[in-house]
Amino acid sequence: MPVNRSTFLRRGIAVVAALPLLTLAACGYGSDSKSTNSKEKVAAGSSKIDGLASVKIGYFGNLTHGTALVGREQGLFQKELGATKAEYATFNAGPSEIEALNSGSIDIGWIGPSPAINGYTKSDGKSLKIIGGSASGGVKLVVNPKKIKSLKDVKGKKIATPQLGNTQDVAFLNWIADQGWKVDAQSGKGDVTVVRTDNKITPDAFKAGSIDGAWVPEPTASKLVAEGGKTILDESTLWPDKKFVITNIIVSQKFLKAHPKVVEAVLKGSVAANKWINANPTEAKAAANKQLAADSGKALKANVLDPAWSSIQFTNDPLASTLNTEAAHAVKAGLLEKPDLNGIYDLTLLNKVLKADGESTVDAAGLGTS
After folding, report:
1. Do domains 5-137+243-356 and 139-242 have the same CATH topology?
2. Domain extents in the chain
3. Are 92 and 24 in contact (CB under 8 A)?
4. What gap in Å lies between CA 41 and CA 86, rounded to an integer?
5. Distance of alpha carbon 98 from alpha carbon 292, whole angstroms
6. Are 3 and 186 a contacting pair, CB within 8 Å?
7. What pTM value is reported for the model?
8. Which of 318, 337, 304 has its CA nearest to residue 270?
9. CA-wise closest residue to 82 among 354, 271, 264, 258
10. Could you give phi then psi for residue 260, rounded to 5 degrees?
11. In the predicted model, is pLDDT for residue 7 greater than 90?
């Protein structure tokens, strides 16, 4: 039986609360991210948009959030925002970012599809809108090759996912079901033991032998490979055209209504970031790594950075049809009641920006604001 939606979300948030965050900011949800990067400085003579002093932007320290990493490091958001200061907070988990959005601690955020779905449905469609795409791919099943030599060997093993009900957890549970195996979604016990583990400690758990593999996003997957792991499945191979949404852009509905010009400016920065990433992959990879180092104090080594970056596709398209599929997977796993996602997208401003930039517009697969 599917659990009550709000009950599942409370459990998911409780799991996240038990995980170590980077450094708790005053809001209690994420870590304020300061920078001395000259590219983030407000240009002399620029003016505030709608008189707004600042906009608060959230993202994760994952390469799958490369649009935000590069856009910040290159000063592309600040360039579009004029004298409206871009302020940033970094997060380790989707539910904590949703809480920050709901509390007003951030206004706009880069986030995975499952937290976006949960945040939207929990609020009965009143808290957020998905306003753009960011990335596809970058998720892999990496295993200990001494214990698991083929996909069928996953049965009976301990496999980590980042957290209960997060995007990768849902994908792995769906894959397990497709093999004809059974696992209790809440406890993670069954034909496969699903171990919910913070991405920051997954490589240590793998090295210590307490898990046999993990279904995780980049750069965690490549960190496991660097520790002797082997990729036996790239999630992109399970999707049509090998494309599926891994990162969206969301905004508080209250902020969108009050400050559409500021939201449009951030989207301009996002589109510019994706264009620069795709035109300059080597420089963009270095820029993302530089921002990761600024946020966490440690850059990724080349043997992790290079394969991780190459497995991610950066796109303005939110790949809306795949979001609907991911929601269906969560329902199938028993983690979510069938959600009403009508209106979860508002791509009006994104398509305005894309048209002005000579780019193709994108659609919401029937889930857009009317």
Report:
1. yes
2. 5-137+243-356, 139-242
3. no
4. 9
5. 21
6. yes
7. 0.87
8. 318
9. 264
10. -60, -30
11. no
Is the pLDDT score of 155 beyond 50? yes
Pair 277, 314: CB distance under 8 Å? yes
Per DSSP, what are the bridge partners of residue 160? 195, 214
Per-residue pLDDT band at 276 (split at 50, 70, 90):
very high
| 210 bridge partner residues | none
Confidence of residue 17 (pLDDT cuts 50, 70, 90): very low
Measured in degrees and rounded to the nearest 5, phi and psi for residue 232 equal -110, -5
pLDDT: is 335 or 363 the higher one? 363
Amino acid letter for position 35: S
For residue 296, the SS3 value is: helix
Inter-CA distances, 147 with 155, 158, 206, 248, 357, Å: 11, 10, 12, 35, 51
Residue where the block lists tokens 């509390």: 103
Binning pLDDT at 50, 70 and 90, where does residue 34 land?
low
- pLDDT tens digit sequence for 252-266: 999 999 999 999 999
Q: Residue 275 — φ and ψ, nearest 5°?
A: -65, -45
Residue 216 β-bridge partners: 140
Q: Quick one: CA torsion of 116, 191, 217, 150, rounded to 10 degrees?
A: -150
Judged on CB neighbours under 10 Å (0-12, 13-18, 19+), 174 is middle
How many Å apart are CA 264 and CA 283, to the nearest integer? 26
Band the pLDDT of 26: cuts 50, 70, 90.
very low
What is the share, in percent, of the chain residues with pLDDT greater than 90?
A: 80
Q: In this structure, is the dihedral angle defined by the CA atoms of residues 132, 74, 243 and 338, taken in order, positive or negative?
A: negative
Indicate the fold that domain 5-137+243-356 takes in CATH.
Answer: D-Maltodextrin-Binding Protein; domain 2 (3.40.190)
The residue type of 10 is: R
- Overall CATH class of domain 139-242: alpha beta
Cβ contact 323:367 at 8 Å: yes
**pLDDT surpassing 90 at residue 369:** no
